[in-house]
């Protein structure tokens, strides 16, 4: 067997027992946490037109044995031709996914089988997640609209509510989306083991502080979360990293450390917010 194919098969066996964190807010809750994160970020990168970032993350997920990753990477190569990547690579990846029951991959293959096994060059490269970087300029509204339009219908309606309400609190809708995407993946029924609730994952103390009676009511939750974001933006003078860190870990922790605290979860959270928003300073709506 081709060693690269064997790597995919062995990875499936290793990763199957893993499950996603309940509070990850991923669109792929049945995947292992690291794979769910790669797929989420790959979709976000593809939606905003960042092909290299999408390819890298889909490739990671595929190499780690994810059937969704194999499908996404195969479809990506079909729709985004890359230098040195032949059509047989896309067909091979879709075939891997189709053989493991992925219906969309089966439809894309339409009965075609690869003439030969041909895996992408990225399978041989070092795994480097430092592809999507903060660009210093906020993500464009057009790119955000493409991202929102690609969401499932139910989640899309909640993302649109965030966009509509955020300016009323003086919060850039793009920043608010970055927060909600990380907190719940636009799921209004989300509840974390720490009792954070709803779309913006309000803990009971924060809900009470900002007059939220029902934290599972989407509009109440969003309004409370936006009011808190506005308060944090004022406190940290529009600094996106410190504001996001405070939303995740609490403003007291950020003040105590004088910036983003050395907690792996919080640092990863901040990186994901910056990776979506792209700018380090808040841009006032309008």
UniProtKB/TrEMBL annotation:
Residues 162-259 form the Transglycosylase SLT domain. Keywords: Signal. The keyword Signal applies. GO terms for biological process: peptidoglycan metabolic process. The keyword Transmembrane helix does not apply. GO terms for cellular component: membrane. It comes from the Bacteria. Transmembrane segments: none annotated. Residues 1-22 form the signal peptide. PROSITE patterns: TRANSGLYCOSYLASE. One of its GO terms (molecular function) is peptidoglycan lytic transglycosylase activity. PANTHER family: MEMBRANE-BOUND LYTIC MUREIN TRANSGLYCOSYLASE C, SOLUBLE LYTIC MUREIN TRANSGLYCOSYLASE-RELATED. Belongs to the transglycosylase Slt family. This is Lytic transglycosylase domain-containing protein.
